[in-house]
Every structure is written in structure tokens, then in C-alpha cells.
Amino acid sequence: MSAATRILIADDHPLFRDALRYVVDRLFPRAEVVEACSYLECLTVTRGGVPFDLVFVDLMMPGGSESLDALRRLRAQIPSTPTVVVSSREDSAIVRRVAALGVAAYIPKSTPKPELENAIRSVLAGDVWMPGDALHDEREAALESSRNEPLTPRQAAVLAQLARGSSNRQIAHDLNIEEITVKAHISAILRKLHVKNRLEAVVATRAYASSAEEAPR
What we know:
By secondary structure, the chain is of the alpha/beta class. It folds into two domains: 142 residues, Rossmann fold (3-Layer(aba) Sandwich), CATH 3.40.50; 62 residues, Arc Repressor Mutant, subunit A, CATH 1.10.10.10. The chain has ten helices and five strands; from the N terminus they run βαβαβαβαβαααααα. It has a five-stranded parallel sheet with strand order 2-1-3-4-5, sandwiched between helices. Strand 4, helix 4 and strand 5 form a beta-alpha-beta unit. Helix 8 crosses helix 9. The C terminus is likely disordered.
């Protein structure tokens, strides 16, 4: 039995969790969705066990009076998991500080549903989504942070399959995972290698391997 995509939605407001879950269910109809209502609960469910493919977290939650510190602890615990911050705070200073933690997106709660869906799709495509053209530098800083993240063993296995020219369906079959999970892994690989598509990811990896082999020992 293949593993389902696992998504965490963490917010202390039940109505907003329901609204976000509605959007997530539309985009990932077969996903396993776990909910949390505090940073403590969020840190607990992400500690060990089956990893999540995508995490949505409110910036201001119980257990996170120092919200940036709480978010920093969460990022340290799941550094390879795309993390989307959804917050009522929209001031640029906060967005910049959050972006510096290497999150995949910062989405204001006032964002219209179609734009919210586009933001999530951008994250799955390996991009970093931030509100407003004025935050171009913050997007670049977040991308720079993501470049330094190592691939997880499962992502490395997916990349190896890509190098062999396998389709998403074949990768899902060979690794015994859902095809949508393969897409999530590929988007994370693109983000971490800072490339636009799967071909560039393979080329970048082969170039790195060649340079490593040619390096003096």
C-alpha cells in the first residue's frame, strides 16, 4: 500500500483551519491532513514518526508568545519540509524576518482563495512565494536559504529515478508512494537545487558529481 501525502495545518482558529483544509482538500483530494492548534502541538506531531510533505502554520499561536522563536524551532525540527506561514500580520518587517528563516511561503490571511491556491501551487513547483513586488529581495533571501538545505534520503532516491528518465508514475511505483507525493518531492528538489525543472535538476546533480570526481584527493 502506497503512502499518502501528509499535510499539517496548524492554526488556533478552527474556522480558519476549516477554510484552509477546504483549499487543501481541493488541491490534494487523497492527502492525509493533520490539524494542530498550538506551537507545542505542532512541534509534537512533527517530532519523529512519518514525515509531512507540506506544513501550514499560523505565525501567532498559543505556545508561541515569541512567535519567531517558535517558528525557528519548528524550522530547525523540519528543515527539509516546505513550510508555509499563513498569518494576519502583513507588515513588511515581519515578512522579511520570517522569510529569513527559509520558509517556502508567507501568505496573509486576507489573500483571496484563488491567489492562495496559486501560492500553494508555486510552492509545489519549487518556488518561494511572498506577498508583493516590494519583497523581491526577501524572496531572493529565502531562495538563498533553501539552496543550502540537503536532500533527504527519499528526495535523493527520487532524484536518482529522475536521472534514469523515469516518469512520475514509474517513480511512485518503484518507491511505493503516491504520485502526488512524488510531485511534492520533485518540487522540494527543484527548490533546494535552485533550478526550474527536472531536467535542470538532473544536469545540476551530474555536474556536481563530475566536479566531485575530478577534485584532487
